[in-house]
Write a structure and sequence with these properties.
alpha/beta; Aspartate Aminotransferase, domain 1; Aspartate Aminotransferase, domain 2; seven-stranded mixed beta sheet; globular; binds pyridoxal-5'-phosphate; EC 2.6.1.9; pyridoxal phosphate; Histidinol-phosphate aminotransferase
Length: 361
Amino acid sequence: MSRYFTAELAALEPYTPGEQPQNRQYIKLNTNESPYPPAPGVAGAVEQAAAKLALYSDPESGALVRAAAGWFGVQPGNILCGNGSDENLMLAIRAFCSKDRPLAFADVTYGFYPVWCQLFGIPQAVLPLKEDFTLDPADYYGLDQSRNVGAIVIANPNAPTGLALPAEALAEIARRNPDAVVIVDEAYVDFGGESCVPFVRRGDPANLMVVQTFSKSRSLAGGRLGLSLAPEALTADLKRVKYSMNPYNVNRMTEAAGIAALTDRAYFEQNCAAIRATRAQTTAALRRRGFTVLDSSANFVFARCPRLPGGELYRRLKDRGVLVRHFDAPRLADWLRITIGSPEQMQGLLKALDAVLPPQD
Ligand SMILES: *Cc1c(COP(=O)(O)O)cnc(C)c1O
């Protein structure tokens, strides 16, 4: 930190992204990317868009907004595009929380939520998950009064556990917090979660919004594209913040990639189905080896090895060319988050596991 860095942010602990190694070739199961390429139409669409790079992108991403409105069955006024869903989440937290309106979230969830709180000077209302990593919706009732929260953010399915709540449970949390906004982070919903988008379609509850990403189920992590789906009044609030930070937040090539991805429903569904099938096989194979594996609704599994500490297993796998995610955090140290890759990649994982694990008794 230089002596010029603002004292206000001296304690800021930035988000640590999963490793993106540039040297060695790994079986890369650490950042929940798709093992499958983007939809076949994406590359050509990006190339066409690149020819117009001298011109600014459409700040409204109008063509993409219309395509997404069609896909989700909502109005264009319900949608805001983001530079990754991280940007949509950040805009929402900036819009609805402040130094006297905390953000509520679980103790075990996406690690970026507390970082935005620190960056914007927003207090955190952290609510522990139960021992088995499930979330009790009742813990979230009335937080608008009891804790004066401005917003509640819940990843559903949750990360890194993969556990999901029914959509109705999220809607009930919103009804029980009429003076706060409930942000449902649906980064993994396409792999088996139940979406809250139908509530946005109805505009009821009026304080419920959804954030989705193209990074996981649409194979566009490197394109950086996310969406928020929210009642029009909330979307207008999000736009006020966006136009105060980065009006051209979605570049031309990414907008074109997003539209192309949304025109190929069959390809999308085929990939999601493949991930679900591979997830079932991987879960069973890990359980046969004595692992505890949570029932995942996402494109990863959260697993605990009975015979080695999480950090040790992570390192041994890495030495064998398999990269998974280990969180050196209080409740998570014994666990690994393993992305579901292609069947061949998962065979590679199992082979490495069998080489590094001590024999079962
Ligand atoms: C991956 C992920 C995101 C961010 O996705 P981007 O669209 O790539 O920014 C947001 N929330 C959760 C829970 C995620 O796992």
